[in-house]
Design a protein that fits this description.
Two copies of one chain form a homodimer.
Chain A: H1 6-27, H2 32-42, E1 48-50, H3 51-58, H4 62-74, E2 78-82, E3 89-93, H5 98-103, H6 106-123, H7 128-162
Antiparallel strand pairs in A: 1-3, 2-3
Helix pairs in contact in A: 1-2, 2-4, 3-4, 6-7
Chain A binds a DNA duplex through helix 4.
InterPro entries (chains A, B): HTH-GbsR_regulator, HTH_MarR-typ, WH-like_DNA-bd_sf, WH_DNA-bd_sf
Protein name (chains A, B): MarR family transcriptional regulator
Organism (chains A, B): Streptomyces werraensis
Chain lengths: ~170, ~170
DNA sequence: CGCTTCCTTCAGAAGATTGTGAAGTTAAGG
DNA sequence: CCTTAACTTCACAATCTTCTGAAGGAAGCG
């Protein structure tokens, strides 16, 4: 058998990984196209791809890329940058920020807290149900306070493992 | 205006809360019926409701309740118990375990890690993309190690706030 | 200054999800 | 042992989501 050229081989290997990991993210609640686009970026060497490259690699229409990128930038998992001397747009994974985004359900948790506070107020803090809600609320408040410290520890650990060169971002 | 009886008033207040909080959970990725059933249980004084009660309170068919409960017990957010001298089944929120379930995306994260390890292996740990994946993987491994300690601190904090009587479970 | 290129937006079709009704299953009680 | 009560399962129908194709708009380049 003829050894396939590096790039062809890579294309298939990458595709396998993209589809596999994206499927997991979908299962976890991410919409399909954003998941695929995101993983494709993650698996690209530069961490940057153009709309056209994504469109071709994932076999989807430019419109689908556009929608996916809009979603991803809303949740801060990807940023868009205009390539200077061109009308091409480039999309980039936030090297080490993206998992913060995944962790940062902050906005979500904040809304949960609002709903729970309302619940405690309207059911009454002296009822069994009210107490249960209050405890749940306290849990989220606790987590919200813990997460920043944990991320701080992560940065230290990251430094330790990979050195500070941050070749990525 | 005649003051409505306590229970009627509660019914509406509870319903407001149930729908509001459930909507947030849905937005966060939980299917609608499971979310509504879950919150209804959370807002019930005993933390326990029968299928019939859920069906009536949420205005959904017994079939929908059944499906929702199946989902919830799979993700360990609710447990089912047979009421001794009756064919009624009772569904219960795990007093203080349910947020552990929400936190315990463990299974999910585990699968992500598998996919990422594969990715590192096939892209090569010496490529930029491979390094990015490796870092992501390291992050999840880190989190997985941190969560148990955090939950331990939460239990201590909970004790401190609410005392150990655990009137709930 | 117009042309070209690339991206976006919009409307619609294909597909997936989800909740209902009806039949089936299990178990209590007479 | 038969009846009745309660939950579950199954197949279908309604709904919602999602992706595509086509048209529209900005920005470089000749």
């Amino acid at each position: 058998m003829v050894e396939p050229s590096g790039t062809e081989r890579d294309a298939e290997v990458i595709s396998r990984f993209v589809e596999h990991f994206a499927a997991q993210l979908v299962e976890a609640g991410l919409p399909r196209m954003p998941a695929r686009v995101f993983v494709a970026l993650l698996a690209s060497d530069a961490g940057v791809l153009t709309s056209a490259e994504l469109s071709e690699q994932l076999k989807i229409s430019p419109a689908a890329v556009s929608g996916a990128v809009r979603y991803l930038s809303q949740v801060r998992m990807v940023s868009r940058e205009r390539e200077p001397g061109s009308r091409r747009e480039r999309y980039r994974v936030h090297g080490d920020q993206w998992y913060e985004a995944l962790t940062n359900r902050e906005a979500v948790i904040r809304r949960w807290e609002v709903a729970l506070r309302e619940g405690v107020a309207s059911l009454g803090g002296d009822t069994p149900a009210g107490r249960r809600l209050a405890e749940t609320l306290a849990f989220f408040e606790f987590v919200e306070k813990e997460v920043p410290a944990m991320m701080e520890r992560w940065r230290a650990r990251r430094e330790e493992l990979f050195g500070g060169d941050g070749a990525d971002a």
